[in-house]
Fold each of these.
Amino acid sequence: MEDPHPPSPSDPPHPKLRARAVTRTFGRAAGAVHALGPIDLDIAPGEFTCVVGPSGCGKSTLLRIAAGLLRPSSGELGIRTAARRPVAMIFQDYGIYDWKTVQANVRFGLDIQRVPRKEANARAKDWLTRMGLAEFAGAYPTALSGGMRQRVAIARALAVEPEILLMDEPFAALDAQLRTILQDELLTLTQTTRTTTLFITHSLEEAIVLGDRVLVMSARPGRFIAERRPPFPRPRSGQVRAAPEFTALKSELWELLRAEVGTEAAA
Ligand SMILES: Nc1ncnc2c1ncn2[C@@H]1O[C@H](COP(=O)(O)OP(=O)(O)OP(=O)(O)O)[C@@H](O)[C@H]1O
Ligand SMILES: [Mg+2]
């Protein structure tokens, strides 16, 4: 069959993630919920893409399709990774295992990759140290605060040195201070590793600090209705929060989003 969406000359040469006309519907017939799409998306190597949108518009659905956890109802989503480097996902609810120690949680992806135990332990320790959790290696997640659990989830995702990182509101449950700290850490980290990232957030501020671009989604069924590129060169620091352009972009995005939240409330 002929490709209904052949690459156009403006497409990036080899996107790491490429979605074409992706939709997702849950359920059948009268009770069906059209959750997402159609969505077209290209993410270039090393690019940090943020997605904002009203609650229930299909953001997690998109991420789960990208992670291969859910099939699109129509359309295609492809991920291109070199060598054997994996795709890692951080879930909205962290997705860490309460019955495994912190160390075993961080080692989890490495165990799946069959990294030898000694090396896996060393890498897990290293990431726990970077996340300020070294002394909790032997603890169980139930003994940790929300912020610490979240750092375990981040350490676990990054320990596998993923080529693509999919993050679903990873900082949503944290207090403002810790959130800012972790945003800055993630900024430094992704700029060092140039990890291709798709990041979902409710926070416009977070999206502007972190993103090479911010995509705004409509109310359900979620489609992309706008794209903005924060005008801050890389390497970037958290100081951009104080820039006048930052406030201006935040207001502009909020206006776009407010129209969609209004739609949703009226529906
Ligand atoms: N497994 C499922 N079965 C049925 N409906 C689902 C399922 N998963 C999601 N939905 C529905 O699809 C829509 C989009 O859900 P999704 O979780 O993707 O939204 P979201 O944008 O991530 O929302 P939030 O910002 O609140 O996390 C919602 O109406 C939701 O009820
Ligand atoms: Mg969600």
Amino acid sequence: MPEYTLRLRRYDPESGEAAYWEDHTVELEGHRSVLEGILKVKADEDGSIGIRCSCRAAICGSCGVRINGKPGLACHTHLEAAAKHGAGTGWNPPDEGQATPIIEVEPMGNMPVVKDLIVDMDAVHWKKVRRVTPWLINKEPIPEREYIVPHENMVDVTQTMACIQCGACVSDCLSMEVDPGFIGPAALAKAYRFVGDPRDAQQKERLVDLSEDPHGIYDCTHCFNCIDACPKGVAPMSQIMRLRRVASADYEIEDRNNGYRHEHAFVDNIRKNGLLHEADLLPDSYGGKFHPRAAPELISSLPVITKALVRRKVTPTGALLHKHRKEYKGLREYFDTIEKHEKRYELNLYISGYEDDAEGAETAPEVGVAGSSGQPSAPGADPHKSDPSEGGGV
Ligand code: SF4
Ligand code: SF4
Ligand code: FES
């Protein structure tokens, strides 16, 4: 029977001692889970080890931890896989001098530790989920029988419904690390659950709220960590991008955080230059170089610009004189083709397609299934312009 060293992060706030690592060796088949290993240590050696779990089947979301530096479910990670694919600082396979492979297990990040591997989900995760009004605000009048929701719309929100609220995405959200006020990936994915539901009466109000909040949808930095972390393929970042797209393209919500203008300036910049011209992006996001709104932003960015120049990240010529390269001029045709379409399709991926793009419409669902979501995609779903009378699932 193989042996594994479980290196557990121990911390008891009541003891007054600092956190420390503690090694335990377990003998278990490699296909058993990290959670089983921890529970064995707890049963055989030290009953005081704090770990939260319930279903042991990747359903309840209570056993979220960091394994070798990466967030995940302890019950859903095999010991052999954790030993083999350890990516964090503590991984040290036996052929590098260790008697047994070391599997580091520590509490999730971005949440206060209650004890050992248990974090306070209520203080961060649940508080943020409550922030997005995580329930349906139904349209009136209430139908005599059930609401009929088009099948496409249900498929559209299925991906977010797969969330088991484990907090793994919250644990590794880089924006939340910098700005603890950020609403965060799990709660924003939950918000899309209702924004994408045609039964909800307050799609626009929800979007205005999330756009105007300085810690809302425009606070995400596209780091992809939440997509990597999620054990259920919810792809929270993709849901955030969909919220942005609906807020910006469909409702044209011009938020005070400048998210709307920045997004439009970005697209215009690429259309014009083929490649992003960074020097224009900032002033254009604030209405152009000579717009009164742009001046304070440019002045406040001077230290960063100076640092970039000193470290030769940019040169004055490169910054001011962008090469409008000929080979990118053809890109404008793509913009023209895309923008002349009236109806947009939303897929369960970070992708848009269009009605009369027959080939794209046919192949896109396969892309969705093969994507990180593992959920069916939603060909043709346009949750915000749907007609519930079209019938379909409930
Ligand atoms: S992509 Fe956005 S929401 Fe997801 S982890 Fe990164 S910053 Fe957070
Ligand atoms: S989105 Fe994924 S990682 Fe985040 S809480 Fe839900 S299931 Fe967990
Ligand atoms: S114990 Fe329920 S998800 Fe792991």
